[in-house]
């Protein structure tokens, strides 16, 4: 039997403004949040960014460690989703403000999914 290591996700009370803002300080990570803002869970293989897969994995880990996303593993595949409800409960209005400005300034627009018609 293979043991799968489960990713650790910070609880609501562990999420800090400094960690969330630090995670959002990179355009790739803002782009990932924009993609995930549609509420759909995405497989890591669906995500497209102009970086190596290992770098994309790093960005996804930073988002998870800050509490912005939730990751789950199913067999050999990993899936990620935005923790919108948790973020809104901990930091009311922050996520929508970031998304609005990111869209207006086109921050992270170079990040998408395999089917770009679903891009935010």
Automatic annotation (TrEMBL):
GO terms for molecular function: DNA binding; DNA-binding transcription factor activity. Residues 9-102 form the HTH arsR-type domain. Coiled coil: none annotated. It comes from the Bacteria. The keyword Transcription applies. The keyword Acetylation does not apply. Keywords: DNA-binding, Transcription, Transcription regulation. Pfam families: HTH_20. PANTHER family: TRANSCRIPTIONAL REGULATOR, ARSR FAMILY (PTHR33154), TRANSCRIPTIONAL REGULATORY PROTEIN (PTHR33154:SF12). This is Transcriptional regulator. It comes from Nonomuraea deserti.
């Amino acid at each position: 039997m293979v043991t799968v290591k489960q990713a650790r996700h910070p609880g609501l009370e562990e999420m800090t403004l400094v960690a969330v803002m630090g995670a959002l300080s990179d355009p790739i990570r803002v782009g990932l949040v924009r993609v995930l803002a549609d509420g759909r869970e995405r497989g890591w293989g669906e995500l497209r960014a102009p970086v190596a897969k290992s770098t994309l994995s790093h960005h996804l880990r930073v988002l998870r460690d800050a509490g912005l996303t939730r990751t789950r593993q199913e067999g050999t595949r990993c899936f990620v989703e935005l923790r919108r409800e948790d973020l809104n409960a901990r930091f009311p209005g922050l996520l929508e403000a970031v998304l609005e400005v990111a869209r207006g300034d086109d921050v992270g627009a170079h990040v998408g999914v395999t089917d770009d018609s679903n891009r935010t």
